[in-house]
């Protein structure tokens, strides 16, 4: 799930939670951050959503849905599991 505030469409972009794949988050240029008042951490990139979505597409992720929730835009993506 990727999200950003509507008024901040130029960044930052939330790319994952504290349990996200660290290698993927590094590829996206996202840093693990804890915002004052939150009891959780999230990966945040200074890149725009478009750049993040393009990077994820190169890694095999496909956009499944997009919605707005209050002042937040949310994109959900999916990647087929590799046959092992």
Task: Describe the overall structure.
This protein is of the alpha+beta class and 84 residues long. The chain is built from 2 helices and 6 strands; from the N terminus they run ββαββαββ. The chain has helices at residues 22-27, 49-58, and strands spanning 2-5, 13-17, 31-33, 42-45, 62-69, 72-78. The protein has a 3-stranded antiparallel sheet with strand order 1-6-5, covered by helices on one side. A 3-stranded antiparallel sheet has the order 2-4-3, with no helix packed on it. It is globular, with a radius of gyration of 13 Å. The chain starts with a strand and ends in a 6-residue tail after the last strand. The model has no long low-confidence stretch (mean pLDDT 89).
* Portion in beta strands: 35-45%
Query: How many strands appear in the DSSP assignment?
Result: 6
Determine the fraction of residues in helical runs and give it as a percent range: 10-25%
Question: In angstroms, what separates the terminal alpha carbons?
Answer: 25 Å
Describe the protein's topology:
Elements: E1 2-5, E2 13-17, H1 22-27, E3 31-33, E4 42-45, H2 49-58, E5 62-69, E6 72-78
Antiparallel strand pairs: 1-6, 2-4, 3-4, 5-6
GO cellular component, one term: nuclear membrane
Protein name: GTP cyclohydrolase 1 feedback regulatory protein
Main location: cytoplasm
Give a brief rundown of this model.
The chain is α+β, with helices and mostly antiparallel strands and 84 residues long. Helix content is 19%, strand content 37%.
């Amino acid at each position: 799930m990727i999200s950003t505030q509507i008024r901040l469409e130029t960044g930052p972009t939330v790319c994952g939670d504290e349990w996200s794949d660290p290698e993927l988050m590094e590829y996206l240029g996202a840093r693990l951050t804890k915002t004052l008042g939150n009891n959780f951490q999230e990966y945040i990139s200074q890149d725009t959503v478009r750049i993040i979505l393009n990077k994820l597409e190169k890694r095999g992720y496909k956009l499944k849905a997009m919605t707005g929730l209050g002042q937040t835009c949310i994109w959900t993506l999916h990647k087929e599991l590799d046959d092992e």
